[in-house]
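Re: [help] complex structure
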Amino acid sequence: MEWEAPGIVLDVRPFGETDVLATVMTEEHGAHRGLARGGQSRTRASLWQPGNLVQTRWIARLSDNLGAFTAELIHPAAALALDDPLALAMLRSACAVTEGALPEREPHPRVFDGLLNLLANLPRGPIVLSDLIRWELTVLADLGYGLDLTSCAVTGTTGDLAFVSPRSGRAVSTEAAGPWRDRLLPLPAFLLATQNPATAADWRDGLRLTGHFLARDAFGLHHKPLPQARLALYDRVTALAEPTPETDPDA
Amino acid sequence: MGGPEVDRLIALLAKLPGLGPRSARRAALKLLQHPESRMLPLATALAEAARTVRSCTQCGNLDSRDPCAVCADPHRDQALICVVESVGDLWALERAHVHRGRYHVLGGTLSALGGTGPDDLNVAPLLARIREGGVTEVILALAATVDGATTTHWLMEKLKPLGAVISRVGHGVPMGGALDVLDDGTLAAALRARRVY
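Output below.
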């Protein structure tokens, strides 16, 4: 058994003294594990970093064997994100969510394409958070837990959608939310139309929204918690959204 | 092969880094052939080290004294602390004679997938050392990996309010490294960290 394809490194764990067990996601083969010999060596360690795009070759005797990876670097996303705490947090979160939520060896081309774009755009700064939240919605939809943000679950109207039901995952308008608005999840406007500008508070609300359904459906059903890297990203964005004494005129 | 004692010796040696069953057999044979000159001194040294060597309560280094020789050295710059991931990194910097301050060994890096969280790192003693006063600069010398950089950013945020200057080691072209053989990640890091002359 053998295949070769561009792949994104999702997870790397030391194996023995010199090798690593890597999880790589490709468009055609999904999240795939394999042994990368010499992956801890001085020359190969920089390649086997989460987030890197690599030209991967997987070889095994039988299809259900673990198999062995060899790879060449295509895009050093990890190295480019190292100096930027937010970019690094997004990279870690996206890789951890993909690795934890998707079943092994099941192709998810939309998730792969979204992740590829996300990693390529990380140097653009915080605005990539909008793409990351939309990509998490894609992950949920690909796994069969897609949210319905097209119309109000109560009235059927398509305007003034401002909340999402944490149970059904359907949008709710401001009018229909009424006294239950505190129990609903805020729906940031940038998720309804791409031209809507997003603020740090919108990103926080967006991460809260997707985080709720990822935790309940994608991870909770497998009795797994939301990855630590995803929680850390939410904390970082929450800190961005909270006014500091310098920026808060009321402080 | 040579009785249970020899088998046990080989099995224990094979667990050491760099040694497999084959090389452990060779090492065991060498030791057994020179019991007086090699085996007994080694056994004594191992027993002595196991009995006396402990983690330094100040920095986390391994030494038979507490505080360790580095922390107790009055000629070292007390205002400078270099934070490293492991004792191996501390020894590497000491071998190079490039740092004349003190150290702090974290004992790992934050790793979401490896399950290492903030509580697993030796951070509280570092914060206490800085709060005591007298520390003007903290150098973060952690690995240029995703986990190392995450830990660096996290530590920077923790240490910033304490007032000391926080710096990190440079990433880029190694000594003797020709550009055409460097990987793309290292080249990118080197270009981003370029200096103006």
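Chain B has a mean pLDDT of 92.
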